Please model this.
Amino acid sequence: MNPRALALWSLSAVTIALATGNPVYRVVVLLCALNLLVVMRRPGTSLRGLVIALVVAAVIAMAVTTLASHTGHHVLASLPSGIPVIGGPLTFEAAAFGVATGLGIAASVLGAASLSVVLQPHELIDALPAALARTGAAVGTALNLIPGVARSAVEIRDAQRMRGWRSRRIREWPDLAVPVVLTALESSLTMAEAMEARGYGSGARTHYAEQVWRGGDLIVAVVAAVAAAVFVGLRIAGVITDWYPFPDLAWPHVEVAGVMCCVALTVPLLVWRR
Amino acid sequence: MTVAANVSLTGFRYWYPNAREPALNGIDLDFADGIALLGGASGSGKSSLLRVFNGLVPHFHGGMVSGSAKVCDHDVVTTTTRVLARRVGFVFQDPELQSVYAGVDRDVAFGLENVGVAATEMPGRVAEALERTGISHLRGRAVATLSGGERQRLALAGVLAMRPRLLVLDEPLAQLDDAGARALVSTLGELASAGTAVVVAEHRFEHLAGLPGRRLAIDSGRVVDPGERFTTRISGAELRIPTHAVPTRAGATGAWGLTDVATGPAGAPLLEGVSLVGRAGEVIALVGPNGGGKTTLLRTIAGLLSPISGSVERAPGRVAFLPQNPMALLHRPTVAAEVAWTLRAGSLGRDPGDILRDLGLAHLAERDPRDLSSGERQRAAIAAVLAGAPDIALLDEPTRGMDTAAREALCRVVATMRAAGSAIVIATHDKQLVGALADRTVAVGAGSARELTTVAVA
Amino acid sequence: MIRSLCRLALVAPLLAMALGAFSSVAGIGLVVPLCAHAASSHRVGLVVQHGDGQVIRRCIGFDGSTISAVAVLQASGLEIGLDTYGSLGAAVCQIDHEPAGYTTCLPASGSYWVLFISHAGGAWATSTTGASSTYVGGGDDIGFRFDPLGGPDPPPPTAAGTCPAIAPATAAPSSSASGRTPAPARTTSQPARAIPSAATGSTSGVLATAPTPAGTLPRARAATAVASSAKAQINLGLLAAVTAIGGLFGLLGAQAVRRRRR
Model:
């Protein structure tokens, strides 16, 4: 699986999710992305946290929209108009619009999440274009240092506690923070020395080329790009319209071509295997 | 591959930036091939000398230089690190702070990328380097899953991929257990016999005893006659402590006890069925491989880690815990302030000077700990943690990276504490320390902790 | 070879976008419904009903195959006030000086302009999109009714007779061109010509000879065919969407089952 092909797919999914406010397309994109994540994620990663966070975000979006926007015909409840911002009728249309917004957030986040759930961090860094290779090495090094700093923070906390430190007052936190920061700085200096000893930072670099484009990768890249382009083209042409439920709620218009563009996002499941 | 390394230093002096005294004070050294073992106390200029070989001194660390230094026919001062990196490979002490990428193959290729080796050539050289260090079986693995010894050999592979003529290693065995150390040393032997020149600086000479080669020593920035520096046995007569195993004194009170304890760092049991008792005035040594559970056991006794099952008891009183990297704890402006902080935090009304004297740090009491040499810093950290005559003292790898003088100072402190009635537990690889101090020895590993009746002392 | 294929992959989206844009401009039916009489202009009927019941009718002609409700209003010559909501488009705040003055376009209480659409003489239906995002084709009608918020919206009187069918080839030139000429040809009696429509939403004539009284309009047969095919298209899209969603949920379920079995 080529990381750049996956990145292109991810971009297409996000583009389609955000191109219209129509919740039907967003649901299809969301389900395609979710399917891909479930099948292709790194063994050992759990999607539960992500899904819960997105559900919470969608609920918040719906609540905020319902409470703040008071347009629409079908009134669910009414708050006294005197209250600023949230006073007034709470309408079904606003709730529906909030749901569509939440779906958009969820669909685009799931589309983008593929880059972190499916790929290893260093695969993503490797996929950077050659111009950013040094940035990639620096970021990769930082990622390697983080677990060590985290572990040393725990050790330092335990050791200081044994010396008698108590985390009671804010004034005492420097006794923990200063050693951790200094340790992190010293680790990074040691790391820098090791990197310089291996010739880093001294001129033009080559790349340990592992970016292979196989047939499946090409198919995914082309299909994703075409799907996004056609969807956007149809949107611009007016065939696919935005969904604006105010002032009266009505079923959104759905075009077959649009649905097909969204369904095209499942192509990676056909050609890639985890 | 048998082109000579041709190290030649003449009257070489080096000052770190803003330093009054030179770290290297007139080095005259000629070295062409084979193995050279470099010994010396910390602060003697050992690390600085090693870094001259690959140009980190002066290019990375800055400072002033006088005299001449040539390595592999290049003048160190005028040649860039990029060029020198192709001739000289450097392996550092900490296995975790040398890998850049998360995949084994990728990390070995890091050096090749830096010097601009063509992409088509890289896979071959990566394979060759992994072969030479004997870790071809680790191909495709994630670096985070490797043990300390494997990571150190990975660092070595990363350096060998550049095909250097000279290999320099700065205390490479410090953080390894016996198995890891032996594997690395045998690799070094093979490399030397295949033609690469090797320079190793170490304190743990017990593993290097088998390697043939020159012995060098450095003291106060000058190369001196090796002489006594390569003997690391701690002589009991000099330290005035009993060197025989002391049977448990009748009537000694129990200080801590574990009853059928199962414990592990992340909720999964690493050790099971552990039943041990520690008594006042007794030193217990924990031995075993890295990752076997020594640190976990220490933390359980200290109360930092709750056991999964079973019970832990401690007699009331102060517990001191010396972690593996005590220098990380130092955050006060002076050594004395550091010790005073511990005493104050524990509400102990003792004089900071006591423990400083025991460790030979009385003359450094008002210095900033981070300005001291690494051996002095380690002793300062030990003083800071063990101040106040704790009732239970738990030490995790205390002699790691220590030179002989510091180890002797530590032995003195431990003996003093034992005489005062502390119950002491030391987790260590250091066999000489075990032989000099331990009353009892417990082998920790493979899921259990068993007391040993005899200990083989090297 | 791979590199050139990659470049081709990048060109394809640009091609698709170009095609989409071109077809929308030229009215060629790649992505938009075919207009049967592309050479002649199309007409829509506009019905505006004020709050007091007064009705204004206009017949607006236009080129191209579709026109937005806002454009119809603008071409009608009536006074209008619009407010734009960024990407959501424009809303109609005021038509023919009603309301006389306004601060917010869509007020929280009171009355506002409700937009209705009638496709090819069918019943009025409220629009699901804003006035600037609602498009109609020739032969459709647009209605605006000033209605209080809350409660149902009765539709305006039917647009029947606003725009009679255009006779092919002999169409009066006055009805072609820029579309600024409202020509209420209501009173001319013309034989009802059911012009067969090649595709949906085109200029199939729909009207009887004489203006019918306000009330439901008998549908011409062709209109029925047009209306039902238009509805069929909407249903097809929803059907496709529902199928896709069901299939994807099924896939997810299959994955969950497979994981549990492992």
In short: Chain A is about 65% helix and 5% strand. The longest helix of chain A spans residues 133-163. Residues 3-126+213-271 of chain A form one domain.
